[in-house]
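As the next step, I wrote out a protein sequence along with its fold in token form, included below for the reader:
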Amino acid sequence: ETLQEAKDRGVIVLGCGAYCIGSSVEFDWCAVSCIRQLRRDGFKSIIINYNPETVSTDYDESDRLYFEELSLERVMDIYEREGAAGVVVSVGGQIPQNLAHPLSQCGANILGTDSKDIERAEDRKQFSDMCDTLGIMQPPWSALTSKEQAIEFANKVEYPVLVRPSAVLSGAAMRVAAEESQLRNFLDLAADVGNDKPVVVSKFILNAKEIEFDAVANKGHILNYAIGEHLENAGVHSGDATVILPAQKLYVGTIRQVKRYASQIAMALRITGPFNIQFMAKGNDVQVIECNLRASRTFPFVSKTLNHNFISLATKAMCGLDAKPYKISLLDIDYVCVKAPMFSFTRLRGADPTLGVEMASTGEVACFGEHVHDAFLQSLLSTTFKLPNKNRTILVSIASDQFRLEFAESMLILNKLGYILYGTPGTAQYYQDNHKIDITSVSKPDSEHDDGPGTALEVIKNRRIDMVINVSEGATRKDEVTAGYIIRRAVVDFGVSLVTDVKCAILLAECFDRGMGDGKFKPLDIQQFHKLPTVGWSKD
């Protein structure tokens, strides 16, 4: 058929469905950007979505709106009724993505990456096999056939290990197991959530940096890309992580390897449209974690930071139009953008307010700054985080000597700036003995009612503490209900600021050291950053 006939028949865009943790307004932004580009290019646009909270279901956004469920039967009914030229499944998150293969089997024309290649990326075993064939480094892994085999594999590579079901959003049922009993429990959970999809167990790499690669490709060739880095170490879900763009602390060799691996994957999967790959780096060794052949939740963040809409470009590529890459020089951008997560732990009674591989955040805020400290602190304050300025008191509880050593310089900064420091016994002893820091010891709670004089709960409940830095053992933690959990829960329940990651705590201390502790900023409009002059290249 001719291009004009395809435009007249129209393109169906599948929306994000109901909002939940992991699938929210980011994907609706992607769907709306896709619809608007279709209309600009002269295509009849048809949206299927059943969430009245979304912009995509506004009556004037598309030529035809179907307020229907995102199921195979309903989408095929609409596809046949409209006689559409194709269906876009890659801008609405995981729900439309999971429909790609069954829709294709029923005869629907999937625009962009072929449904068989989507299946190869979504299926953990197929994707890992492909990476092995291409010589792309990845953590040691094994496809689960029985619990005993998984336990044998975990003993061989040594704990901790990561349990990963296939074709899930927001890391559902993804867990880090530190011992055999945890592994058995997590395998049952992953099997329930993953249905008939493979469950893969892989070695969990401690203290690695996670890297986000968001890109648009056309027939396997990458048109544009963005590389962002997680502030937290690998092991925090990308939706819960603090993401810095452009990446500030990656080696040039690391960036080169990330681009090389991404190009190989894009070519092998014949990608057309948006995609996201998550990497981890330790030293200069880069390993791939996973690849999603759809828009990720960071696409709006990337597009607004770089002032170029990646979804518009992807839409052109998927529709077979001339998709010209944007002129972007990631190394020459004179500002930084930081995305910080927002949580609703105050409304979730009993939930542990800590970060892990399964997503827990219910929102995010991104802020621009001239440097990373500026952008980070503004984004943190935008999430309603309160700086420790009322009493200037900070309670520090760090589980391991490794993290205590890493945070030592920051403790010296806080001490120098005159903050009144409290610490749980092990933490206080460490900094008193090794760094001669003036810190008051408070005892750890045995239960949530252990709030007598001299306890951590007592100083929190009496509002004598402005901020708590509580860094747990993370992936190596074995106890379900720990003293750390009781402290974190009390902190949230009493409205005290909480930092649970050592990297975030270090950057926050650096902000204080730069004289930014009062939290006062002169807000700048996004356009003021976009209009900053470039050196040696042109945005046009």
Summary: Residues 475-480 have pLDDT under 50 and may be disordered. The chain is about 35% helix and 20% strand.
